[in-house]
Amino acid sequence: MKRPRRKQQITVYLDPSLAEILGDLATRRRQSQSMLVETALAAFLSPEDGKGEGALNRRLERLDRRMGRMERDIGINVETLALFIRFWLLTTPPLPEPTAAAARAQASARYEQFIETLARHLSTGHRLHQDLGREEPPS
Predict the structure, then answer these.
(1) In the predicted model, what is the mean pLDDT of residues 40-46?
(2) Dihedral angle at the C-alpha atoms of 43, 45, 47, 53, nearest 10 degrees?
(3) Dihedral angle at the C-alpha atoms of 125, 126, 129, 134, nearest 10 degrees?
(4) Contact 41, 34 (CB under 8 A)
(5) Does residue 22 contact residue 14 with C-beta atoms inside 8 Å?
(6) Average of pLDDT values for 32-55?
(7) Number of folded domains that form the chain
(8) Residue 41 and residue 59 in one domain
């Protein structure tokens, strides 16, 4: 009679935080760490059952939608900046030389104030463009 084949032992090195998560999960489920790793590895390596492949496809679709939104947002930002620069150049007359130096000094101070305001606003985590791009939920 043939002996059943034994499982093969391998050695795997895990990040300490991942090893702790695995240990906690094994304790909660009352299963061995080896069984949990074997199950997870089997699911990862055999997408034929549809579970692994479906999850991967959903992630890829989500990433694709995010990339699409990012491309749209970057396009809007570039177009907005280009239109603003064109408008500013068309409507702002050059300054006479005697007042140009004072205007440059004032512009420098105003620019520094703008940078400080921008830094404060960005540190809050709220973005103005999010308010502009909010879509109303369909009724």
Answers:
(1) 75
(2) 90
(3) 120
(4) no
(5) yes
(6) 75
(7) 2
(8) no
Residues in the chain: 139
d(CA 11, CA 138) in angstroms, rounded, equals 54
Q: Are residues 56 and 74 in the same domain?
A: yes
**Does residue 21 sit in the same domain as residue 41?**
yes
Beta carbons within 8 Å of 47's beta carbon, 6+ residues apart: 53, 56
CA 12 to CA 23: how far, in whole Å?
14
Domain hosting 63: range is 50-92
What is the reported pTM?
Answer: 0.43
Instruction: List Cα–Cα distances, 101 to 11, 21, 106, 112, in angstroms.
Output: 71, 63, 9, 17
Q: Are residues 57 and 73 in the same domain?
A: yes
Q: Distance between CA atoms of 42 and 77, rounded to whole angstroms?
A: 45
Q: Which amino acid is at 8?
A: Q
For tokens 């030389």, what's the residue?
Answer: 97
Does residue 109 fall inside a structural domain? Answer: no
**C-alpha to C-alpha distance for 51 and 44, rounded to whole angstroms:** 9
Confidence (pLDDT) at 64: 95
DSSP alpha helices (H): ranges in the chain?
A: 16-29, 33-45, 51-91, 97-123, 128-132
